Amino acid sequence: MTTVEQAVLVSRDAAHLVHPLHNPSAHSGARVWVGGEGAYLVDADGNRFIDCLSGLWNNTAGNGRTELADAAAQQMRQMGFASGYIGSSNPRAIELAERLAAITYPDINHFYLTSGGGEATDSNIKLARYYWKLKGKPEKTKVISRIWGYHGVTFAGMCATGIAPYWEMFKPLIPGFVHIPSPYPYLYEAPAGAASQGIAAADELEKKILEEGPDTVALFIAEPVQGAGGVLVPQDDYFPRIREICDKYEVLLVSDEVITGFGRTGRMFGLEHWGVKPDLIQFAKAITSGYFPLGGIGISDEIASVMNESGSPWMHAYTYSSHPVGCAVALAMLDIIEQEDFVGQAREKGKRLLVKLKEALADHPNVGDVRGLGLMCGVEFVKDKPSKTMFEASEAIGPKIHAATVERGMFSRVRGDAYCIAPPIVTDEDTLDRIPQILAEAVNSVLG
Ligand SMILES: Cc1ncc(COP(=O)(O)O)c(C=O)c1O
Question: pLDDT tens digits, residue range 121-139?
Answer without folding.
Answer: 999 999 999 999 999 999 9
